[in-house]
Amino acid sequence: MNILGIETSCDETAAAVVKDGRYILSNVVSSQVDIHARYGGIVPEVASRQHMVSIIPVIKEAFKNASLSWQDIEAIAVTFGPGLAGSLLVGVNTAKAISAGRGLPLIGINHLHAHIYANWLGEKEPEFPLVCLVVSGGHTDLILMEGHGSFTLLGQTRDDAAGEAFDKAARILGLGYPGGPSIDKAAEGAGNSIELPRAWLKGSSDFSFSGLKTALLRLSQSGMISDINQAAAGFRAAVVDVLVTKTISAARKHHARQILLSGGVAANKLLRQEIVRLSHVPVLIPSPGLCTDNAAMIAACGHYQFRQGSISGLDLDVKPSLSIV
Ligand code: KG4
Ligand code: ZN
Fold it and tell me: Is the pTM higher than 0.85?
């Protein structure tokens, strides 16, 4: 079964065709990162206008790369939240128009569920029960999955999301936008002599990163950072330490057979390395390109939702602040 996936929740316009929820036939991502970089962050109005320019060419390219036509598609999956309202509207309205025009089923997708389903696009199929850490620009959620479509929230951030913390830290250190990749790069090969605090929130699976960010800001304001790379390394180590320790302890507690990572921050080199090194169970992590926003994960998630009969009507509305459960 071939599903067309459409993703426009933030600053990537993406379309992909995925077969049987696991095999990528095409995966096109048009990033707006260069457009927003000059503002140091995403400008919502600019993002939605750019989605309108890109969406049709991106869908056409997805068909071309897969060497398929409309007759080969059986359903359309589209992100309806969470995300920027104006951006989500472009994808959802495009998908609705195609669904009505072509008579194809429409599947509304929770972007955070889709991040988890990026793991079904790898070589090995995930096994339940599993614990998944979803770490993106807006979310840090620890999830227990006991079957398809079953999501139990074990913990979440009480303040900043992990990706947001990376982005803010990069701004403090004068590193480029987006912050995650630039901190990751600066930290590579730098010594770890700057020790920053970790908020353990003992006994809870929740996270907190705002104190860490403030600690970095204080160091910077008091002129105590002489080496930006070392500060980046210290910050990255502190975030990764907490993410890895809490994920593994949740996996032990819930007798998970596997640990999954997902979301943009799962592209982080140290996080990938440390979770594999320290976990007692197998770890699955999407390739870096499937960690950040893409439409293949939307189509993969759509496949499993479709199999469970979860289909949307043409009254599907955008939900900018949709949560994971
Ligand atoms: O999942 P995503 O592409 O978009 C959202 O749904 O939010 O995640 C974007 C976030 C940004 O905060 C970005 O800085 C972070 O993921 N990110 C990283 C890395 N690559 C992207 N954070 C740490 N290390 C990376 N290598
Ligand atoms: Zn995302």
Answer: yes
